[in-house]
Specification:
It is a single chain. The protein is an alpha+beta fold. The protein has a five-stranded antiparallel beta sheet with strand order 1-3-4-5-2, covered by helices on one side. A hairpin with a 6-residue loop joins strand 3 and strand 4. The longest helix has 15 residues. The protein is elongated.
């Protein structure tokens, strides 16, 4: 499914519960995996391709936090409005389901679970989305529930 409005003119009303949106892709680069992990998640299975072979993963994998960053890039570029995003109070149920490896190509599937207009702030609403990151085999590698505050097109 695609949105009826472009990302530059997308408002709370455009986020319809039950709609499923798929987009992406982004390819995981080995040098970026190692650089990210050396700085933020220095574990051998993220930083050392040779040592990673002897781990439970049998080779180098991306940090889950890097996978979140890659997801966020796709989410911001394709799903989250450019004109009406007001911030997010957080995410729930973050799961790293499968390892992400250098060379994997990731895409994102977002299901809009709920869109509720604020009663106390009529200029906005809260959109709850279930996000799945998939690899090139259509396997889910990450899932999470995100909450975003989105401005309304025509505040009541």
């Amino acid at each position: 499914m695609t949105f009826a409005s472009p990302i530059t003119d997308r408002w709370f009303e455009d986020y319809v519960p039950g709609a499923v949106h798929e987009f992406g892709s982004i390819t995981v680069d080995e040098d970026e995996v190692i650089a990210f992990a050396r700085r933020y998640d220095p574990q051998d299975f993220h930083t050392d391709p040779v040592a990673a072979r002897d781990t439970v993963f049998g080779g180098l994998i991306a940090s889950g936090w890097q996978t979140c960053g890659l997801m966020m890039r796709l989410y911001a570029d394709h799903y989250l409005t450019k004109c009406a995003s007001l911030a997010s109070p957080g995410v729930d149920e973050l799961r790293w389901v499968r390892p992400v490896r250098p060379g994997d190509t990731l895409s994102v599937r977002v299901t809009i679970q709920d869109a509720v207009a604020s009663k106390s702030k009529p200029d906005r609403g809260v959109v709850t989305s279930f996000i799945e990151v998939l690899n090139q085999k259509s396997e889910i590698v990450l899932s999470m529930r995100a909450v975003n505050m989105i401005a309304r097109r025509n505040p009541g």
